[in-house]
Structures are given as structure tokens and as C-alpha cells.
Amino acid sequence: MLNQGKLVTRVLIGTVLGTVGIVMSRTPVRAGFVDFNPTGVASSPSITIGSFDIAPGNALAENAVPPTGGKTFQLDFQASVAGFNNTITAVGSFTESVQFLSDDRTMAIFAPAPVQASNSFFELYYNPAVITDKNLTGIGFNQGTLILSATPAATPGSIGLFSLSPGQTGPPFPAFDQFGPTDHYLSITSVSGSGSALISANVTFLNPDFFLTPISQLTFNSSLVTPFKQVSPSAMFTNQAGGGPPNVKANPGLINGLTGPDFQFQADADVSFTPLVIPEPASIILAGLGFASIVCIHAWKKK
Q: How sure is the predictor about 30, in pLDDT bands with cuts at 50, 70 and 90?
């Protein structure tokens, strides 16, 4: 009789937990719409957004030249978020590793490293005191009020690639800085090429004055191109969280992408958000009933 009781208990517990699991997993984890207050002031109207369209900015692959299979590097990023008069900025640093390198070294595939460096991060800031020329100097992307922080994650599907344009393994090379009337890097040229980076991150902090919808994850998706034509190359980058001053001086060498040690890209990104999944009332009730049943079974066995 005792063995029968144990069997019934195991069957009922498995059934209850299995049913709860089915109900709780009905809502898939996916990007969605969130309510956002652009100023963080309660009197300002909020808007519903599906993603942040980030203006052209900068990315720097630290010590990535020359590339080799399995090589690990930090990919730093900084830019302003479009549509908010440059009051919202994005800054981050991701640990990447080279997954594949073509024999002629004209194409590389990279992905977030399984173990991220301690200084890997992604942050969003609000700063109504707009800083001019921050793209060129690299100063001002992590100033103001922190509104979001996240930790990069090596999730399935996160991938990056970059390939050189035909004929870019030797001279002549185009000018590195082709944005605006002034070339701020007269002595530097660059290889031509294009690519992209897709990175996921887990949200660790959210300012409720700005994000009215709880968020669990975000997806960072950026193009990577050289040379620069829509924005100035940044002189400095920040590869640590917390709002400290830029601590990395970009060093692409005399030929960006070839002499190194750094490889600097014009980056044009967007960021989508995954709202935090809150169990439906029915799921909570079902879970409660399930555990109540387990307690009753346990009490019945003692009789």
C-alpha cells in the first residue's frame, strides 16, 4: 500500500508540474513593444516603441589585427539614438572571438565569446546637455542619467561577419575619414569592406522613469562598414561600464584594417527589446492548485 502511495504521488506531481509547465510556456520569449518616456519626467507623454534606431556611430575591434582563428577581442561601440535630438546615447563593449577566417584573409566570421570579459557591457544614457563633436572625440556617450544596462550573452544566433571589397588586399587604399568637408585623419587610409554584428544581452538595470515596460533582454544588430562616410571616426572609446571617461585610444595604424592593431568601423545599429514575461493569472492559479494538491497527497500518506 505504501509503494502504491509513492507511485500515485510521483504520477500526480509529474502531471501537475507538466501541466503547469505547458501553461507557463505558452508565451514565447521574443522582442515586442515597450512604453518609453523620452525625458523621464512624469509630465512628459510616453511613446510605444518596438526598437531604438541608432544613428551612425563607431565600433572598434581592439587588437583584432591581424585576425587569426580563435582570436578574442573587445568590440567597443558608441553612438546616439536617432529621433531624440541626440539626448539618448548608447555605449558598449562585447567580447568577440573569431570563428572562421578565409584562406585569403578577406572574410571573417566572429561571435560573442562564451565567457565575456569582466568589462563587457551595454548601456543607454539620457543627457539633455547635448555634447557637440562627440562622434569625433568619443567623449560624452556615457554621460548623464543611466537608463539601462545589460550584460552581453553568447546566445544561439548571435553572430558577426566582415568581408573586404574585391581588390582590397593591396593599394591604393581610400581615405579613412570621408565624412564632411574635413578629413581629420589625413595620414590614415583604410581598406573597404562591410559586415554586421548581432548580439544579445540580458538586462541588469532599468530606469523605471524612462522604461515603463519591464524588459528582460535586448538584441543589438549593427552594420559594420569601412571607410567612414556618414560620421567621423572617433578618437577615443570606453570599454568599461559605469560612466567613466573614455579609456581606449583608437589605433587603426596607417591603414585601417591592415596595419592595426585596432580595426575601426562605421556602425549603424538598432536595438530591439524583449519585455519581461509575467505569468498570466491562470498560470499562477494553476501552479497554486498544483502545489496544494502535492501538500494534500503528502498529508494523506502520513495517515
A: low
Percent of the chain with pLDDT over 90: 73
Neighbours of 234 (CB within 10 A): 26
Q: What whole-number distance in Å separates Cα of residue 66 and Cα of residue 77?
A: 20
Residues 6+ apart with CB under 8 A from 271: 51, 52, 54, 90, 218, 219, 220, 221
CA within 13 Å, CB half, 227? 21
Stated pTM of the model: 0.82
Q: Report CA-CA distances (Å) from 166 to 84, 173, 189, 230.
A: 38, 12, 17, 22
Q: Report, as an integer, the average pLDDT of 153-162.
A: 89
End-to-end CA distance of the chain: 12
The answer to whether the CB of 84 falls within 8 A of the CB of 66 is no
Cell of residue 296, nine digits: 494534500
Residue 81, strand partner residues: 54
3 state SS for 218-277: EEEEEEEEECECCCCCCCEECCCCCCCCCCEECCCCCEECCCCCCEEEEEEEEEEEEECC
**Distance of CA 229 to CAs 58, 183, 233, 266, Å?**
12, 11, 9, 8
C-alpha distances in Å from residue 1, one per residue of 7, 8, 9, 13, 120: 10, 11, 12, 18, 58
Q: How many CA atoms lie within 13 A of 274 on its CB side?
A: 15
Q: What sections of the chain are H helices per DSSP?
A: 2-24, 134-137, 281-302
Q: Which amino acid is at 5?
A: G
The angle formed by the CA atoms of residues 299, 300 and 301, to the nearest 5 degrees, is 90
Question: Is the confidence at residue 299, as pLDDT, over 60?
Answer: no
Closest alpha carbon to 126 in 24, 209, 45, 61: 209
Contact 101, 73 (CB under 8 A): no
